[in-house]
Design brief:
The structure holds 3 protein chains of 3 kinds. Chain A is an alpha+beta fold. Helices cover 32% and strands 22% of the residues of chain A. In chain A, strands 1, 2, 3, 4, 5 and 6 form a 6-stranded antiparallel sheet that branches. Classes of the chains: A alpha+beta, B alpha/beta, C alpha/beta. Chain A binds chain B through residues 27-28, 30-32, 78, 81-83, 93-94, 97-98, 100-101, 104-105, 107-109, 111-112, 116-117, 120-123, and chain B through 8-12, 14-15, 18, 54-56, 82-86, 88, 103-107.
Chain lengths: 169, 127, 274
Amino acid sequence: MSELLSRVQEPIPNLLDPAIVQSIADDVWTSLVGDGEVLVPLPVPAPEVTVSAWVQITGPWCGAVVVTCDEPTAKALTECLLRARPPVVIEPEDVADALGELANVLGGNVKAALPGPSTLGLPETGPTPPATRPDDLCRVDAQWRGQYLTITVQGAVPAPHAERNEVPL
Amino acid sequence: MRALVIDDSRAMRRIVGSILEDFGYETRQAGHGREALDVLEEGYLPDLACVDWNMPVMDGLQFVSAVRSNPAYRSVTLMMVTTESEHGQIVRALAAGAHEYMIKPFTADAMRDKLALLGLLPQEVTL
Amino acid sequence: MTLTATSFDWVRQLVHRESAIVLQPGKEYLVEARLLPMAQQRGLSGVSELVESVRSRPDAATNRRIVEALTTNETSWFRDGDPFTAFTGTVLPALVAARRPDVRLAIWSAACSSGQEPYTIAMLLSDAMPDAARRVSITATDLSQEMVERTRAGRFSQLEVNRGLPASMLVRHFTRAGNEWEISPALRRMVTATECNLAAPLPRMGPFDVVYLRNVLIYFDLATKQAILQRVRQLMRPDGWLFLGAAETTLGVDDNWERVVLGRGSAYRPRKGN
């Protein structure tokens, strides 16, 4: 990723309107999370501990599409995706998988709205990756069922593999 | 009717699988293209394969090409079910031999419409 | 949740009567989620208020919007494929043979919603005849101004293009525009969209060779059905074709039509001598 960081790229706000990200998220929520589920575009204060899932986009624009929320919210999202009815036990791998798939579906649609051709990486999960350049960031602050949830499209995230201090979900 | 659901996400396999089961399908699952080819080689020939694009080991496009190059698998209808949604990507998948293409996210209604297009809707189903 | 049990029950009965779809108890949230935007658009505070207003002043158009909001997320492209198979297989060849090449074929999509039906017809035509743009005009009408504008724009969301549009047609006739898909300018030029209330006297249009009037009549009482069918017939050529929804018929409503079986479906033609 280092060569990507050194290359100058068009910052994401010039390429992508947050309204497009919101409208992609609207579609994802009603069809994937559940009928009648909505991501409300009103920010709430960030919780102290968050988890993230992301997919990398590599092309004319390089970066990642990141979904971030707290752990109980990630678990609730997983229950929705799995259409799980209690007393189904949700394992941590289920949460990583479901949140990752959410990032994947958002990421693929974001990628299609950007200049191409680009490739999409496989979903990864872990602590929220920092945005490297504040000007190369498109952010949708929202809430789902009253809980904090953000979607960011951020330029060239440092390669997550370089950090071995990841905490599993 | 039998379907093979190929996706690296368990959640997505479960979503696609349960929609198909609601339409009367018997389903099997695979986590990537190579695993799906193993299922075919072991003799399980589905009517429909729902194929994700980005997967580890063997991606969906490679899987589609492999299936279409083997005459023994001619009866399998291939539908990409993926978040890849650029115009050019859909053209590539169709050129590789995919019969249909469904973009994630999708609803159960959309799956029913696609199955109807492919002539693979086992019975008239109302949701 | 603002939905009262009485309101939910009323909506359930309406949906069942008009679409034969059963809304199970427990689907209150769905009714709430789908109808709230419609209530808000009308300046009402909630779904129960919307229901109360339609109950006190019955209105077929609102009933139709309620049923549509609850029964479909998005209109399908090849919704009930039969009328389209019949169109390319039988109707179009018959019309091409019967008309002089300098006579434009006129097609009317009479409840075009967000445009899937007129553009489906346009795609079929452009695939079937190379000079479709010169030989055919498609008139698309809807009661709702919003729907007419959406049809004119010819832009569809990702979820909408997933609904029964063959991928080969998507890549041939659409381009990506942001996170939406836009129909090709050539096809958009074939379609003229305007507002039109079928339950009132119709504007001067036509004469049409083919009319698609699907899933509209079911929302009206017998007298209105008869009036609509009569007005539509006056705008049709004597050898034209009318397609109704799968659950609709002219039989027992208006005797001035002849039912013709086409494949698995049927079409209606003005009866000779009327």
